[in-house]
Amino acid sequence: MDFFTNTNILFFLAAYLIGSIPFGSILAKTFAGVDITAAGSKSIGATNVLRVVKETNPKLAKKLGLATVILDALKGTLVLLVAMYYGLSESTLWGVAILAVLGHCYSIYLGLEGGKGVATGLGVYLVLIPIPTIIGAVVWIVCAKVLKISSLSSLLGLLAVVISASFLNNGLNVGSNIPMYIIAFIIIYKHIPNIIRMIKGEEKKVI
C-alpha cells in the first residue's frame, strides 16, 4: 500500500493542511492592513479579528469577523463533504474532522500557532452531528448576546453540543463518543488562558 495514494491518508493530510489556512489573518492583512497574529490575543479567530480591526475600522471589523467565522467553519465542512462523496467510513470522517480542527489550532503555516478551534469545530460537528450542533449554535449565539464574553459563550455552546449529542447520538455511528470528545478537548485546551482570565474576572467583553 503506497502511503501517498491511500485515500484515507490523502484526506487526513488535506484536512490538516486546509484546516491550517489562517483565514482570519489573511482577511485582516488584506482588507485592514493589520497583523492579528501580533496584536490582541494573537489568535487567528474571528474574535481577535473583530477586536483588533475594530480599533481602526469598526464597520469593517464586523464584516471581517463574520467572514472569518464562515470561512473557518467551511474549512472543516467542505473537506468532510468531499470525503463523504468518496464514501469514506464514519470513523475516517471523524479522523478528518479532528485533523481539520487541529490544523486550525496548530497551523503549519504559522509555526504551529493558531486559533481556538470554535468555528472549525462548529463546521465539522455540523456535518457529523447536525442536530446537537444546531442546539449548540443557538446556545452560543444567545449567550454571546447576553454575556458579551466570546470565550464563555463558545464554551457553553460546545458544552450544549456535547451534552445533546450524548443523548441524541449515542455512539456517533462509530461505537464511541470519543472522537467528539477529542475535538471538544482540543477546543477547551486552547481556551485555558481564557478560562484562567474568567476565574480572575479579567476576561474582556466583546461589545
UniProtKB/TrEMBL annotation:
One Gene Ontology term, aspect cellular component: plasma membrane
Similarity comment text for this entry: Belongs to the PlsY family.
A GO molecular-function descriptor: acyl-phosphate glycerol-3-phosphate acyltransferase activity
Reactions accelerated catalytically: an acyl phosphate + sn-glycerol 3-phosphate = a 1-acyl-sn-glycero-3-phosphate + phosphate
Enzyme Commission code(s) on record: 2.3.1.275
Alphabetical keyword list: Acyltransferase, Cell membrane, Lipid biosynthesis, Lipid metabolism, Membrane, Phospholipid biosynthesis, Phospholipid metabolism, Transferase, Transmembrane, Transmembrane helix
Membrane topology: Multi-pass membrane protein
The protein's role, per its UniProt record: Catalyzes the transfer of an acyl group from acyl-phosphate (acyl-PO(4)) to glycerol-3-phosphate (G3P) to form lysophosphatidic acid (LPA). This enzyme utilizes acyl-phosphate as fatty acyl donor, but not acyl-CoA or acyl-ACP.
Species whose genome carries this gene: Arcobacter acticola
Name of protein: Glycerol-3-phosphate acyltransferase
Subunit structure: Probably interacts with PlsX.
Subcellular localization: Cell membrane
